[in-house]
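Sat 14:20. Reprocessing the chain from the morning session after the first attempt stalled halfway. Input below, unchanged.
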Amino acid sequence: MDGVSEPAGPAVLVARTDAWRASAREAAAGPGPAALVLGIAQDAGYPQAGCSGDCCQPAWLDPSRRRHAAALALIDDRDREAGVRRWLIDATPDLREQLHLLDAAWPPSARLAAPALDGIFLTHAHIGHYPGLWQLGPEAMAARGVPVYAMPRMAAFLKGNLPWSALLEGGHLRLEPLAADWPVALAADLSVTPLPLPHRDEHSETVGFLVRGPRRRLLYLPDIDGWEAWEARGERIEDWLAEVDLALVDGTFFDADELPGRDLSRIPHPTVAATLRRLADLPAELRARLRFTHLNHSNPMLRPGSGARRRVIAAGFGLAEEGQVHPL
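Finished this time. Tokens:
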């Protein structure tokens, strides 16, 4: 295990927020659409509740090592008169902190009341991807009419279950339909397209998103049941890497030995090790486009200096990091 630093105080958290703000200014290099990584951990975040093992202990002792559940923000700040426009991909259990960090990087315009979001796109109904919606209700922000983009089964799940149905009935949320492979235009040159993915679909279908901007294209696949399963609908991750500039993909588990005693057939994410083997022969330019996200608390890639991190980098791939800004 890597070394454990002394517990961090508020100054570390303030410095981290300042780093987000500086990162946004530097990476954006002027107005234009961009994606901001708001979280890279699996649904339960890092460290995980109830875990005091070697994997999580460094993050309990040092708050600067903690990571939020996987999420992405899309920003378009080209219209100075109308103000910045902002969307989220997924509403995680960490929505409170993620909105605060988004506000630090791209302050909201006065034209919208809190949370100053032009919409939220949902991938699916697993617990790390939608429950932050409650923060928009009367107990917190009391938002009005925030557009929530959802596939048909996902929309039915929200309409059919409390407290989400109450948020809809109270006018805090407004459902907007998504259809597989049909783009949603956010601007004339900025769109989001849902891509159906194989996953454990007990409560809803699952989608990833293709984000097309005026300069770059980003593929977001935080949850998938395996590359072979995706091939069944005629899709290959190799082909997508040739079509996009950046792909943030499921890296939940590093390898099959990570969770002894667990039946991985019940959580059949593609392991990072398997993805590295599958894509090892791709040209270096394509491998560099893939960055892993949605990391389980047990994943050694969460620990700086780990052998797993070094292996990923040496193979020519990358890791998503909170606060990264990717121009679109």
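The mean pLDDT is 87.
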